[in-house]
Design goal:
With 133 residues, the protein is of the alpha+beta class. 22% of the residues lie in helices and 34% in strands. The chain has helices spanning 66-75, 81-84, 91-105, and strands spanning 4-5, 11-23, 38-50, 52-53, 79-80, 114-121, 127-131. It has a 5-stranded mixed β-sheet with strand order 5-2-3-6-7. Strands 1-4 form a two-stranded antiparallel sheet.
Length: 133
């Protein structure tokens, strides 16, 4: 199969991973519920894209995104995020951190596909997305 491209847009794939962790946003007023220790079952969704598909018809193999799952499990799963990162562990800042990590550590192995966005969801109703500029 030959490489496929489109003149009208880009292809995008996404994959989601989960981890459980606690955090505390101590810069918030004491009355704010998020200033207290609490936890979430996080979902992290990475989106990568490109203008072409490889010889298999893929943006990249979904398996190439698995290093993000390993990073999440070893660094964040069942941890207190305030003890793990050197920034306030908001969903916005976690999405930015994970996006930058992904660009440095995973993207070079994607065969030309590039990170589009990194989304961190604390619940099924609340998410923060960092988009690459």
């Amino acid at each position: 199969m030959t490489q496929v491209s489109t003149e009208h847009g880009n292809f995008r794939i996404s994959r989601s991973f989960n981890f459980c962790a606690s955090h505390q946003l101590s810069s918030l007023p004491v009355e704010h519920k998020c200033s207290r220790l609490h936890g979430h079952n996080y979902t992290v969704t990475v989106a990568v894209g490109g203008a072409t598909l490889d010889e298999h018809g893929f943006v990249t193999d979904f398996a190439n995104l698995a290093p993000l799952d390993e990073y999440l499990r070893t660094r964040f799963d069942h941890r207190h995020l305030n003890d793990v990162v050197d920034f306030a562990p908001t969903s916005e800042l976690l999405a930015h951190h994970l996006g930058c990590w992904f660009i440095a550590e995973v993207e070079p192995n994607l065969g030309g596909a590039r990170l589009v966005s990194m989304t961190v969801s604390e619940t099924s109703h609340s998410a923060a997305c960092w988009e690459r500029s």
